[in-house]
Specification:
The complex is a heterodimer.
Chain A: E1 13-18, H1 22-33, E2 38-41, H2 49-52, E3 83-84, E4 93-94, E5 107-108, H3 127-130, H4 132-136, H5 146-160, H6 188-199, E6 205-206, H7 221-225, H8 230-241, H9 264-274, E7 278-281, E8 284-291, E9 297-304, E10 309-320, H10 324-333, E11 354-355, E12 358-365, E13 385-387, H11 392-396, E14 406-411, H12 425-428, H13 434-443, E15 447-454, E16 463-471, E17 477-482, H14 487-506, E18 510-511, E19 533-534, E20 559-561, H15 576-596
Parallel strand pairs in A: 1-2, 1-10, 2-7, 4-17, 10-20
Antiparallel strand pairs in A: 3-5, 6-13, 8-9, 9-10, 11-19, 12-15, 12-18, 13-14, 14-15, 16-17
Helix pairs in contact in A: 1-9, 1-15, 5-15, 8-9
Chain B: H1 12-21, H2 72-85, H3 100-108, H4 113-137, H5 146-156, H6 167-184, H7 188-194, H8 210-216
Helix pairs in contact in B: 2-3, 3-6, 4-6
The chains are: A alpha/beta, B mainly alpha.
The structure holds flavin-adenine dinucleotide and iron/sulfur cluster.
Iron/sulfur cluster is lined by residues 211, 246-247, 249-250, 252, 256, 258, 260-261, 380-381 of chain A.
Chain lengths: 599, 223
């Protein structure tokens, strides 16, 4: 079975999976390896990372020095296809015209979704992160705890390959010995930040990212992941042998054609296709879930984007993994006699409590980093170090004016130049001629940046609903967004700005961002960090949640949500590793229940 | 009810905030914090240039996506000024030797708001430069000797120091310099000039050399 067009669909499948990103990819991998016949529908076009990835292209080889434009928001060579905060033919609307109440919705319309570009930062949620309400009385607890997800984190790390170290820090879980790949060496700005961070008590340590700093152990990992399934072992071993180790060049955001980092299209989908149990239909824009007389899902209805015709696939189980916003949209657009308010929405909570990550960045200039002897710092194509949240005790003792934590992502500036002036004008002032070139050389690499990635508490004012009038080019009603930050997020952003300023000053540097008075001065717009989760929370009570602890909707037993929608909270840890761990866990549950004949 | 046409563009305040935080390309994992230099309008149609799905398996030259619009006279001025800002010297070749003028032409001819905004400053600026050159020395800017070129440019090279009558021209010079150096440092020659040594595959990544660690007073903490 392969990538097919909509007229080649089989009469019926075991499972229909909507979306081919991290959640859909993991679901398809686990189910097809277990012998389930699956069909995956993807609204974007098919994408071949082997031939389409811009690896060594220089910035002067693309238009405008390859700088960001409204059409390629992360630069010309970025992997994202038909994506961004605007997608051709697919608008969305805002309920408010106040900036701070608007949501920036990032979508990538391509096979593999956002995983072709993503930052590859792969952090486990800790014990506290599953029980936030119990700790501070805000938001919601998950109906599961770290112990329920722990082994799935390990499995995903073994499957995709994650580098990092075990540091034994509070609420920052270690992985079992031998699971993580070696952390890459620190770069100049990172080591310098680490040294000076110590003075302020900020623990700067190696980050975890889904990049192969060495090849995966194809002889042993497949046996551990699929102990009783020889065929699955063989397929996975072959896929793992097809992945090279990182060669320390080319930014990961462009994707990786040697398959050294995780993207769904290089890691999940190839072995899933190799099982022969997966059909993928690209350009298939799902409008709604089909429901039988008994209220169970029977398949999905989609628009073939190529010719705008309607198509249907039949399946015994439906999995939505289209990203929080899109999954909510499909559910709310599925209306019929049994569910007039949208699918699986007896609680009325579909679309509610959508969360992003709190983002705030401060940049600085550090004289010690000027005029360093030139050296290659491309490294693993993304960050090597970060600081996990470190003020748990102070926060618990009530010393902070916000309830949850943030981690710090950081970077220096020895990246590939081109496109924009590498030195801010106020440094070189009126220099031109050889003087300018000498100044550029002096200052290159001396700028640092720190970003807050913090936990947002779900609130009543942040949600998505169907716009009553606007439809996309395919006739599908679009989402209308509502957004609100609470004081917790705003105060956190101020704290982060102060911390980053103190760190830059501790390094002997000067802060380059303007003074921050309130959180509104620095917090990034909702959605801008592109960690959208929530919208169909999991919980223990069907009246107060949409899904149970298996990502399974309470109302429709054969409907599973395997992107970020079921997240009852959005820890500071970037969400994707958790999306994948929960998708694997849900897939195992589906396999088990299907064997028992329960679904 | 708000239709997509009715909601406002992201304001300048937000934009300025981004500029303040990150003007340089950082090696961040999560690239969401990098500044863009244009105004995104979430959910709305974007201006058409190379599209949201250009073929990334090849290389491009200025003129491939939209016509270049500078006149031969304007190109002469552009070349002379770019070479004054980025001359041939011990750090590398002149701007025109690495096609910086082509790039500038592509930039001021581009269909995106940010570049169109630059063009509104650069095109009149080029004319001002020619007029000024004729006024002071009775010659085209490109025919002036270095001393004469500098005499004009010293008056306009830094807006905060420029006299009121040169403020506008100084604004032009700054924009022009940004575009020219952005182009120059994207080339292999520019990488050499600035000290960028990457974009080559390596068997291992050893971190900064000892010399760099010593200079910073740090040790490699990842073994
Ligand atoms: C700039 C950037 C940096 C990031 N960095 C990180 C990071 O470092 N760490 C981290 O954890 N996360 C990061 N993320 C977030 C990460 O990409 C997402 O969490 C992850 O991709 C979510 O996976 P998903 O499967 O839920 O959704 P996606 O990857 O978005 O996949 C959803 C797919 O569903 C398809 N789809 C949508 N609607 C329909 C429909 N109606 N019919 C059919 N198909 C549909 C979409 O086209 C898409 O391909 C980053 C994201 C971006 C863009
Ligand atoms: S840095 Fe390494 S993992 Fe990232 S794209 Fe380049 S080779 Fe691939």
């Amino acid at each position: 079975m392969p990538i097919i067009t909509s007229d080649q669909v089989q009469p019926e499948y075991d499972v229909a999976i909507v979306g081919s990103g991290a959640g859909g990819g993991q679901m398809a991998y686990t189910l097809t390896q277990a012998g389930f016949k699956c069909v995956m529908l993807e609204s974007g076009r098919s994408y071949n990372p082997d031939t389409e990835t811009a690896m060594f292209q220089r910035n002067d080889q693309g238009p405008l020095g390859s700088v960001s434009t409204p059409e390629k928001m992360f630069g010309f060579w970025d992997a994202t296809v038909n994506g961004g905060w605007s997608v051709p033919g697919e608008p969305y609307t805002q309920a408010s015209n106040k900036e701070e109440e608007q949501f920036w919705w990032w979508r990538a319309r391509m096979m593999g979704g956002r995983t072709n570009h993503w930052g590859r930062i792969s952090l486990r949620n800790g014990e506290y992160d599953f029980k936030p309400y119990s700790r501070d009385g805000l938001g919601f607890d998950w109906p599961i705890g770290y112990k329920d997800v722990k082994d799935y984190y390990t499995k995903v790390e073994m499957l995709i390959g994650v580098y990092g170290t075990n540091e034994g820090l509070e609420n920052t879980p270690d992985s079992p010995k031998g699971v993580l790949l070696p952390a890459p060496k620190g770069r100049a700005a990172e080591l310098y930040s680490q040294k000076h961070g110590k003075k302020l008590g900020i623990p700067i340590i190696p980050i975890h990212r889904a990049v192969l700093t060495k090849t995966l152990d194809a002889d042993n990992i497949p046996k551990k992941l699929h102990p009783k399934n020889k065929r699955a072992q063989k397929i996975l071993a072959e896929a793992m042998r097809g992945r090279a180790a990182c060669f320390w060049a080319t930014p990961c955001g462009r994707g990786c054609n040697i398959r050294a980092n995780y993207q769904s299209t290089t890691v999940h989908l190839p072995p899933a296709l190799a099982t022969g149990n997966l059909d993928i239909i690209p350009d298939a824009h799902v409008r709604e879930v089909l429901i039988g007389k008994d209220g169970k899902a029977t398949g999905v209805l989609f628009i073939n984007k190529k010719n705008r015709s309607e198509g249907r696939v039949k399946a015994k189980i439906v999995v939505l993994a289209a990203s929080s916003g899109e999954t909510v949209r499909i559910m709310l657009n599925t209306k019929n006699a049994q569910s007039p308010n949208g699918l699986a929405n007896s609680s009325g909570l579909v679309g509610k409590y959508i969360m992003d990550t709190v983002g705030a960045s401060v940049g600085g200039h550090v004289p010690a980093l000027e005029n360093l002897p030139p050296h290659n710092e491309d490294g693993a194509g993304g960050s090597h170090f970060y600081a996990p949240w470190w003020l748990y005790k102070e926060q618990h003792a009530g010393k902070l004016n916000f309830a949850r934590g943030y981690h710090i992502e950081m970077g220096g500036s020895r990246g590939m130049p081109g496109g924009r002036n590498p030195v801010p004008s106020d440094f070189v002032k009126g220099a031109y001629g050889t003087k300018f070139k000498e100044e550029a050389r002096r200052y290159y690499g001396s700028f640092v940046g720190y970003s807050c990635r913090g936990e947002m508490i779900p609130n009543e004012g942040s949600f998505a609903e169907i716009d009553p009038t606007v439809k996309d080019d395919y006739g599908v009603p679009v989402l209308r967004w509502h957004w609100k930050w609470s004081d917790h997020e705003l105060n956190m952003a101020v704290h982060a700005a102060q911390t980053f300023s103190a760190l830059i000053e501790a390094m002997g540097g000067t802060v380059r961002s303007k003074k921050v008075k309130t959180g509104h001065d620095i917090i990034e717009p909702g959605g801008k960090i592109i960690h959208e989760v929530g919208g169909a929370l999991m919980g223990a009570d069907p009246k107060k949640s949409v899904c149970n602890k298996w990502n399974q909707t309470w109302d429709v037993k054969n409907l599973f949500l395997c992107d970020g929608t079921p997240f009852p909270s959005n820890a500071d840890k970037n969400p994707t590793l958790t999306i994948m761990a929960l998708a694997w866990r849900a897939a195992d549950h589906i396999i088990e229940e299907a064997r028992k004949g329960n679904i | 009810m708000e239709t997509p046409e009715k909601f406002p563009r992201i304001s300048r305040r937000v934009l300025l905030k981004w500029f303040a935080t990150a003007t340089t390309a950082m090696t961040m994992g999560d690239m969401a914090s990098i500044s863009f230099g244009f105004t995104p309008t979430p959910g709305k149609e974007v201006p058409k240039g190379y599209g949201q799905d250009p073929d990334l398996s090849q290389y491009y030259n200025p003129g491939d996506f939209w016509p270049l619009t500078l006149t031969p006279e304007q190109r002469k001025t552009v070349t002379a000024l770019a070479d004054l800002i980025l001359p041939e010297d011990h750090l590398g070749p002149a701007a025109s030797a690495v096609r910086v003028p082509d790039f500038i032409d592509e930039w001021v001819s581009a269909p995106y708001p940010d570049q169109m905004d630059d063009a509104k400053v650069v095109i009149p600026g080029l004319k001002w430069l020619e007029d000024e050159s004729k006024k002071r020395f009775k010659k085209d800017f490109s025919s002036l000797n270095e001393k004469q070129k500098r005499a004009i440019c010293d008056d306009i090279c830094w807006p905060p120091d420029a006299k009121p009558e040169f403020k506008q021209a100084a604004n032009f010079f700054s924009r022009f310099r940004n575009i020219a150096v952005g182009a120059y440092y994207g080339t292999p020659e520019g990488w050499k000039a600035i000290g960028y040594e990457g974009n080559v595959p390596l068997m291992s990544f050893d971190g900064p050399p000892q010399e760099v660690l010593d200079k910073l007073g740090v040790t490699q903490t990842v073994k």
